[in-house]
Amino acid sequence: MGPRIGPVGEEPQMSDQNTKAVLGAGDTLGCRASPDPQDSRLSLFHNIKFFLLCHSLLQLAQLMISGYLKSSISTVEKRFGLSSQTSGLLAAFNEVGNTTLIVFVSYFGSRVHRPRFIGCGAILVALAGLLMSLPHFISEPYRYEHSSPENTSVNSEATLCLPTTSAPASEPAHSNNSCTSSAGTQHLTVVAIMFAAQTLLGVGGVPIQPFGISYIDDFAHHSNSPLYLGILFAITMMGPGLAYGLGGIMLRLYVDIDRMPPGGISLTSKDPRWVGAWWLGFLIAASAVALAAIPYFFFPREMPKEKHELRFRRRVLATASSSINNDEKCVHENTSGETPEKQEGLAQMAPDLTVIQFIKVFPRVLLRTLRHPIFLLVVLSQVCLSSTVAGLATFLPKFLERQFSVTASYANMLIGCLTIPSGILGVVVGGVLVKRLHLGPRHSTLLCVLGAMFCLIFSLPLFFMGCSTHRIAGVTDQLGAQPGMSCNEACACPSGDFNPICDTSTRVEYLTPCQAGCKGQVAEKGLDSPSKDQIFYTNCSCVAGGGRVLAGSCESACSHLVLPYMLLASVGAALASLTHTPSFILILRGVKKEDKTLAVGIQFMLLRILAWMPSPVIHGSVIDTTCVHWAQNCGRRAVCRYYDLDLLRNRFIGLQFFFKTGCLICFILIWAILRKQGKDKGSMATLSSDLLPQESAQEKTEDSRM
């Protein structure tokens, strides 16, 4: 049997035979170079610091691949015609496999070769990344003009105003036959592949964190273990930020960069029909995970225990390391939903029990723990906070794209550079405050109340930072240059086309040049990108004066508000993150000592089931209710093209406000309970102190009489 998985600082029990086989006299910092050539060759893989380096890189790559989908969710919707509800379910589906298997991993954790299981899990994660990119290769090239029968997308003349007699009568029938025979089946296949990939991603991620954390803790020096875990968490915290950064870079490239049409494309990244190379990021992240998995097949099942404390750790990080250990453990959940405590707590639930004992003890401790009011309220508060984080991580890029007319690449860059670092900073500051001020449960709760309250206050201005939807002909506005007239009566405009143009003088957007009655087009060199031609449409009967209009959607009048919005949102994220470490301390100090590890496991199991799984679906469904114009694909509702921006802003931020309010109410109730308990203890102490002098006086009287 392998070493027991225990709390941080608990030394594993290794046999003397195993220890002597690996260790020798004069071992320096846990690294021993044996005279034997074989031992010399394997010495690198018997070094816990090298394992720490490998595991930090693996978790960094794993978080990149799990967070990359969220950075490109709106692009995947546009490419395959998915609703926000479906994409939210896709983003949350990796939790299904993870939640299903984590209990089994917690039971068998101390009975297996942990490094090899980590390597196998990493291989599954890499395969999941490759599987996520597969839909790009099995799908036909992206056509952003449905009316063009060719794969080349440069023929913008197909959306011009054509006489009614010029429209082929057989085209709709051909389109319907095409939908019935291949397109519908291909869509179902693509969606099934992505859901299978997400499930495989969750399954592969199960052994990586709990086994890695316990392996480091078992074989590191007991005083170095907090430092090593702090380094691990600090490096892996950068994973979600790198995922959004990778998304920002990849989405600047055109989706079919590997099979560009001969004439090129006329789209720019600002065009609403632009689809970036979403699949390329999965290949890069999967390759990184596969490379990081290789060393794990060479690490031993048991490693020599470190015999010395690091000198620089003694001198410089004696205090900071324990702070890092307390603070950074909780960071992972705020970014991607895969917190180390979640995995570590579950891995410690019952490592020494048999299966029958495990099944018997789990329901009893579960009921006893859930009856504890502090534990229940803390879990509910963290469910509300995690629901907020899950919704923002999945749909904030899309919200920024729609509300402020920014590109998907720029939205990802803002999130990766502002929001995620702010959340990390909030978690670290919260842990430092708890440690430096020596906050007890009551004052920790007060810190949580203040953080949640100010987060709520900073959320209020977000309701007013945005603009209404501009006028869209045929959707929000009547079509016609003058009231009562149809300006494109002589045009045969297919209903499924989408090639928007904007009349900047009136800020009216048309779905196609045909809808605006445009009969000609001209290409000119663009000022922003001289290498690409800008398309102008001329002789437009629906445009006042018949002037020419530029291709593309009307830009939002509130684009300048995107930076103030992100700054306020980042401050709110930092304030909300202040509550994470103090609330975790409340659980550790609020339950019985023998139930602590199981309580932590129950806590994060509930977070997965109640927050990380349903929240993206709820947010996606709310976003879908604000759509005013859906694209149709083979008779089914596909991606939403236009939203009611006021309704989108109010409902999306309102849902966040609802969860934040629930978090604040839970912390207020916890503070009230602890305050009442403190008063009760104070009154009992006063009563005992009043009785004690009387008893002493009686004893003195009796002594004098004797």
Mean pLDDT: 76
| CATH architecture name of the largest domain | Up-down Bundle
The CATH superfamily of the largest domain bears the name MFS general substrate transporter like domains
Low-confidence stretches: 1-42, 146-155, 166-177, 321-351
User: What's the CATH first level of the largest domain?
Assistant: Mainly Alpha
Specify the oligomeric state.
Answer: single chain
Report the total helices: 25
Strand order of the largest sheet: 1-3-2-6-5-4
* Number of separate strands: 8
> What is the 3D shape?
globular
Question: What features would you describe in this structure?
Answer:
- With 706 residues, the protein is mainly α.
- The chain folds into 2 domains: 43-143 and 209-467 and 560-668, Up-down Bundle (Growth Hormone, Chain: A), CATH 1.20.1250.20; 471-555, no CATH class.
- Helices cover 60% and strands 6% of the residues.
- The protein contains 25 helices and 8 strands.
- The strands form 2 sheets. A 6-stranded mixed β-sheet has the order 1-3-2-6-5-4, with no helix packed on it. A two-stranded antiparallel ribbon has the order 7-8.
- Mean pLDDT is 76; it is low at 1-42, 146-155, 166-177 and 321-351.
Quick tags:
2 domains; six-stranded mixed β-sheet; two-stranded antiparallel ribbon; Growth Hormone, Chain: A; 706 residues; 25 helices; mainly alpha
Quick gist of this model?
This protein has helices spanning 16-22, 37-42, 48-71, 73-80, 84-92, 94-108, 114-138, 171-204, 208-219, 225-236, 238-250, 278-293, 311-315, 320-328, 331-336, 340-347, 355-370, 373-404, 408-436, 441-459, 562-577, 580-590, 596-612, 614-624, 645-705; strands at 471-472, 501-503, 508-510, 518-525, 533-540, 549-551, 627-633, 636-643.
